[in-house]
Amino acid sequence: MKKGLSKSIKLKSLGRGILFVVLALNLVFVSGCGQTASVPAAQNETTSQTVELKLAHFFPATHPAEKELVQPWAKAIETATEGRVKITSYPGQTLLQADAVYDGVINGIADLGLSCFSYTRGNFPVLEVFELPGIKYANSKAASKVAWEGIKQLNPKEVQDTKLMMVFTTGPGDLYTKQPVRALKDLKGLEIRATGLSAKSLTALGAMPVAMAQSEAYEALSKGVAKGNLGPIEVLQGWKQAEVTKYLTLTPFLYNNLFYITMNNNKWNSLDPKDQKAIEAVNQKFFEEVAMGLWDKQNESALKYAVNEKGMEVITLSQEEQNQWISLIKPIQDDYVAQMKKKGQQGEEILAKVNNLADQYNKEFK
To answer: Which is more confidently placed, 69 or 8?
Structure first.
């Protein structure tokens, strides 16, 4: 009886030992496999993970900048990266105010931003050259090409804190007035809505600039607070200013406004190189096929509307008259060169480069 009991106890002890060893080995195996399997699983998760990017801008959701550029461009990037990069647009200043977009991109509030360099004037001294009065642009295609090529060649330090996707412009702006401006004398003392460099230009020409946003111009013109406006032709239709002005004086040397789409540097650097390459290809395509001529399309539509439906008269200044206007605004260019010199920049060379590019692309896109 004792021998049988002893044998039984030994067998049970042996069974427990074997079970313990099996369990221990199984634990090691499971733990080891789990650890080994977790590395490729994490890697697979990383490579297939969608990068969600937020884009902030100030244009309304109905504006061509959103409908014809931002939305198709974002979709093209998602397709080109096989869904790895997805962009959500926040139009109408819903994420950032227009003048806070660039800093918001730097600080990561938005991953991407679309706005105007002129909204933070002084932060981009080199780039002001593209908005200087006295440089003639045939249209927005020519002006956009000059700006984008010029920035690539100049590579100014002031835009290296973000990754520029593209820049584009309104192209030349004109005078829209309640009374005809056929010569310089007609401009003397006339209250014209304008801001920034445009206000400087009008002051040099003898007009009285009235500072206000485009959104306020219609009411000011309707009430006579302002007698005219300086801006791209699209405002005649998009902002309904053809309803409150009668004359359009072509001034292709007075105005040009520069926009950007840019991206947070850290976010850009975190992307896979193949996705970066794909995005840059999409950028180039959309710059050439959409962005650089975006305002030309709007301007053409607005001009037809203003003339055919609202009966506005288009006034073309004689070459002699244009030369006189340009001579009066030349000091603004001279001041730019002087300010660049103070900052250690070759202002004369920068201005000469832009003038040469303007001559080249005005001929190409005329």
So the answer is: 69
